[in-house]
DUF3500 domain-containing protein
Amino acid sequence: MRSYGNRSASPDAILIPPEVAFEINAGLRRHREPYVGITENGTPRPGLYRLNHAGAAPKTARTAARAYLDGLTPHQRVVGALPMDAPEWRLWTNAIPTWHPKGMRLERLTDRDRDRALAVVEASLSPAGYAQVRAAMALNEHLGQLIDDYRDTLTEFAYWFTVFGTPSDDSPWGWQLMGHHVDLHCVFVGGQVVLAPVFLGAEPTTGTGRFEGVTAFGDETEVALTFRRTLIPNREGEFLMGSSLRAEDLPPELAGPWNGRHVAGAGSDNLILPAEGIVAASLPADQRDGLVELIRVYLDRLPLPQAERTLALVREHFDETRFAWRGGHDDECAFYYRIHSPVLLVEYDNHPGVFLANPEPARFHVHTIVRAPNGNDYGRDLLAQHYRLHHGS
């Protein structure tokens, strides 16, 4: 087992090696920088996102959020509910925070209040999306059981939940769930649901013992492999970043245990990322369908109406959407892929062990990231449109 970090969630970081602290504190260092969004050249493209009141955000989410907040004591609401414009939206980490997190830690709530908090998450996502979040949380505890360590942080409910704004049918509001391998940001604005950034991962991806039957990221892995295997060798120059994820075959900046190959994790809200890979619109029809099926894997975490609206938006930009791959595509090897559209960024990466002992990336350690590039992470672009329309600002 590799042993990294302080075994409590204390902001006292004296036990954390400096290089590790630097990586996991990226969000803390950068969350107060002026927000731009992930762009190709440092300037977000205007007019990509449209405020659409035709679809209705789930009223069950609003009702669940009100019930959750009503159940909190006054001192709990001080940390569990923040204004919509609070900078803490952007303060998150995929690791264990080395600062005092905002929000209520689920395992410190009563069973009833924790159930109410999770009901907000459930009402905001599709059934498949909620099941995946809960699987990742359960596998976090499974990891603690496997290594018999970090029993106060590698648990099912070592996650912080925060409601932003006032849950309403008319005014924007949202929530964040943050912790190891689970970071979700959900915003309701103008009848739409924005679920970005999302970071979901697991080490391992399959449970044993009392976690038998708990699995995660099967579709993210298998649907991607199926699509990759349809791409013909004579076009590899357009999409293949490299044929191996082994450390000896990678540049040092892509071989570390923390971020691996992915670039859009915590602290990367203003990332400049030129598009790489094969252009989706240049693919034959069956391969375009295969890429759409892979995109659906990530969008299907949303409620169905919003998933369909977002997919339609992605389709509008298929001539600018690119797909890139690193690693092999047999039945065992590790790999990384990226889908980069003007309105959607997806990353999938296999990692070496952080808590487990595998020195090289393996399929049983997965990180996935979903972003809304060009300024709509945290629903920022749609929120700006809403405030201009209704408040003249």
Summary: The chain has two domains: 18-37+50-206, 217-379. Confidence is low (pLDDT under 50) at residues 1-14. The longest strand covers residues 192-202.
